[in-house]
Amino acid sequence: VGSGSAVSLFRQVQGTGDSSAISKCSAAARGYIQDRFLQLLAGQRRRRAPLIHRGYYIRARAVDHCVQDFLLKTQSLPRTQILSLGAGFDSLYFRLKDMGLLHHTVVYEVDFPNVACQKATLIKRMKELSALVGDTGGEGLGAITFSGEDYKLLGVDLSELSELERALEEAGLDNKIPTLFIAEVVLTYMENTRSDALIQWAAECFPQACFLVYEQVRPEDPFGCVMQQHFSQLNSALHSLAQYPDCEAQQRRFLGRGWTECSVMDMNEFFTCCIPEDEQQRVQTLEPFDEYEEWHLKCSHYFVLTASKGMEPSWTPLLPSVTVPRHAGPVEMAGSGPAAVCARLLGIPGLKRYGHHSVLIKPNVILTTGGFGEEDGQHCRMRNFHVLSKHAGYWKAGCVTLKIPDKRRGERLYHTVSCLSDTLALVVGGRTSPSSAGLGMLWLKFPETCNASDSDDIAVELLSLQPAAEPAALRWRHSTTEMTFKGEQYLFVYGGRSTLEPVLGDWYFLHTRELSYTVIAVEGPVPESRHSHSACSWEGGVLIAGGLGAAEQPLGSVFLLRELEHGFQWQTVETHPPLVPRYSHTAHVHEGKLLLVGGVWLHTSSVPGITVIDLMTGVCLDYVINVEHLEWPLMLHNHSSIFLPDEKELLVIGGGGNCFSFGTYLNPEPVSLSLSSILTSH
Fold it and tell me: How many CB atoms lie within 10 A of CB 397?
């Protein structure tokens, strides 16, 4: 690496380290992690979003878990050492020292010389830090910028292995005693040949050692593409991903370079298996949160790995205390369906959104309301409604004129819209922010005459409902499904969540003509509470599929609320093979088949496409969506979809979300999926 490009790389990587320190500090301030030293080292305080807090919590928890396990297993030995590679402004040493865990352990930290010097200056300036470490005056010797009895801070470029080896030897690192190497989002910034050499050097030169790695994985799916693009824009490319794209490849990497044991899991698995249930619940209730999709996607794109040789693996406590809800192997795909951008909708503003709802208000006329998206170049809750119409085989966007005194009344996310007549639709629930109460109900009134050929401009009037604050409507991420009972029309409002309840399992029958709640007897096994599920009308009843359950775990159950003479009965729909648990998908019924579109699932290497369940036989087949003709990542969660049975066409509108610290991603255009090959082969 030339000196100019080396300086450039240092600045870019240092930038990610500074951001990481501030995020950890924010997470500590909100009670996610207990660490009073972060604020002293980060230097500045900035409030991050709840999603960022959770992400840095799971990272800190995974590293601490493995470090404390190493210390526990070596506590009877006279001497051990920890070598933190690319340590930045991390507080690990100070926390361990403060907890009295370093009786016979020396901690070595290595980072770029500039970073190490800054940190050394900070430690000397802060009495609380310098008192803990004590200064033995060893700085200035070679690469050492600060030296205490059990703490050495070195300024060395990790990619220069011979220089690193020499500096560590001068600082007193002893390759004969048990050593824990820590690389927390570090190796991926190095060229693979250099990081591979570092891994191999550690295995060859240290007979008793463990190596802990935390970094990114799965670069090729939509979230992975957004993640890669983010780091590329920062000029901090993630080099490991191309050669080591998944957990298995990372495991092979270490086993092929001298390590005898190697265990790896993604962060969804770590959270489920290695964090006690009461601690999971504590974290889940620390602050209002409603970004489940991005939390699970973030966790599926990071892993924690420990490799060992010459000593007991440092993974033993990570052996699952509960059964991992892991789908055995990759999901077997039965085929694929092509995805094509709707050519006539390029660049239409207002359709880039998520958490919205789309509904057919007339044949070939789709009304989209609410959500969070992009308007006039700004990200905001969407006030404007949009209409799409299909005429002469082409989709086009029209204008919607809203007749309301206050436009903010149209702002809501995760609501439902049900079309009840040629001129009326009912909006149920939704939210503004996760900390505010659900929004009740609204009527949408539109002209009787609008149709696909003349829908360039539709006037929609919003009418408040009294009383709008019924318990059934103060929820979001629920479902509202049209159904009939004894010849009368009802809306079945089911599940969701509210400000008080993170997940709901209740239901209401809303009589559409009188807009009143009716008590109707329901028997059978009650489905477990859920939100972000799908619900479809079928044979007078309702089909509920998937969703996110009470422990923030996706569900794979399918239930039918079947009509009986005196009421309804819950029945379980058995699927073969079992449906892969998922949530944030959409669903449609066509000729006795339940179609599930997209969503989020865990512990599988692929992303959900189209799943077809034969409701007569229970046979369940998964189909991949062929996106080779799309020039951008297609995120199939938080989207809406409309199925047109005559053409066997599925129109996907919007979708995406706030992708951790990588920015908000919104599908840029509606996508048309042809399902004819899938439905005819089934």
Answer: 22
197 in Cβ contact with 249 (< 8 Å): no
- Taking residue 254's Cβ as centre, other Cβ atoms within 10 Å add up to 27
Q: What is the predicted pLDDT for the residue at 443?
A: 87
pLDDT digits (tens, 9 = 90+) for 341-357: 554 466 666 789 999 99
- Per residue in 458-511, pLDDT (tens digit) is 888 887 776 555 778 889 999 999 999 998 999 999 999 999 999 999 999 999
136-148 average pLDDT score: 79
Would you say 147 and 140 are in contact if contact means Cβ atoms under 8 Å apart? no
The answer to whether 482 and 494 are in contact (CB under 8 A) is no
Report which DSSP code applies to 89: T
Question: How does strand 541-545 pair with strand 534-538?
Answer: antiparallel
Q: Helix, strand, or coil here: 130?
A: helix
Q: Are 640 and 357 in contact (CB under 8 A)?
A: yes
- Sheet with 144-147: strands ordered across: 144-147, 151-155, 105-111, 80-85, 179-184, 209-216, 302-309, 261-266
Q: Look at strands 394-403 and 521-523 and give their pairing.
A: unpaired
Nearest Cα neighbor of 597 from 667, 644, 652, 543 is 652
Q: Would the pTM count as exceeding 0.85?
A: yes
Look at residues 450, 343, 348 and name the one whose alpha carbon lies nearest to residue 397: 348
SS3 state of residue 288: coil
Burial class (CB in 10 A: 0-12, 13-18, 19+), 415: buried
Which pair of tokens denotes residue 586?
Answer: 């959409």
Q: Is 427 helix (H, G, I), strand (E, B) or coil?
A: strand
Cα dist from 524 to 509, 521, 527, 536, whole Å: 17, 10, 9, 19
Return the pLDDT at 9: 46
* β-pairing verdict for 105-111 and 80-85: parallel
CA–CA gap between residue 22 and residue 28 (Å, rounded): 10
d(CA 640, CA 219): 25
* 3-state SS assignment for residue 124: helix
Contacts 24+ apart (CB under 8 A), 280-285: 280/551, 280/552, 283/32, 283/54, 283/57, 284/502, 284/552, 285/502
Peptide bond into 577 cis (omega under 30): yes
- How far apart are the C-alpha atoms of 337 and 652, rounded to whole Å? 13
